Amino acid sequence: MKLMFKQRFFSWFDSYDIYEESGATVYTVRGKLAWGHKLEINDRNENHVATLKEQVISFLPRFSIQMNGQTVGTITKEFTFFKPSFTVDCNDWRVEGSFWEWDYRILTSDGRVVATIEKQLFNFTDTYIIDVYEEQDSLLALMVVLAIDAVKCSDKN
């Protein structure tokens, strides 16, 4: 399943539309006023399905993952020198990035590829292609990409 993650051009807070290959909207993401990043994710029927919230009292960037009103895990940026790395503690995933921080792979602890993420260059807004190998992993993979984008946005400022 391929998803296209595209940030809206004119938005007061972070706001994204997530499309499938056919062009239909799968998820909408809206930023909310909070300390740190707080992103609420709705499905195509505008039902709230998840929240990604930055934990501001943390040495390295860390985000809590909430689904159905319950915190199910965290996404944490690891301390590395050259290639960015993140861990997702709710299902034993890890995220490895390229040196230039454009492309990422989400892997299981045994090395199976869950998804690949490619940043599209030469766009006015942040645009990513997320290639998820199993559809049930799409929401969590999206949340990983949102966390990475939030970290990169914070690093720019």
How would you portray this structure in words?
This protein is mainly β and 157 residues long. The protein has one domain (2-156): Porin, CATH 2.40.160. Helix content is 12%, strand content 47%. The chain has one helix and twelve strands. It has one helix at 138-156, and strands spanning 2-7, 15-20, 25-31, 38-43, 48-54, 62-67, 70-77, 85-88, 93-97, 103-108, 113-119, 127-132. The chain has a twelve-stranded antiparallel barrel with strand order 1-2-3-4-5-6-7-8-9-10-11-12. β3 and β4 form a beta hairpin. It is globular and about 40 Å long. 29% of the residues are buried.
Question: Quick check: average pLDDT?
Answer: 85
Largest sheet: 12 strands, antiparallel, barrel
- Principal-axes shape call: globular
Q: Numbering strands along the chain, what is their spatial order in the largest sheet? A: 1-2-3-4-5-6-7-8-9-10-11-12
- What is the rounded distance between the termini? 33 Å
Q: Which CATH-level-2 architecture? A: Beta Barrel
CATH class: Mainly Beta
**Uncertain parts:** none
Q: Helical proportion?
A: 10-25%
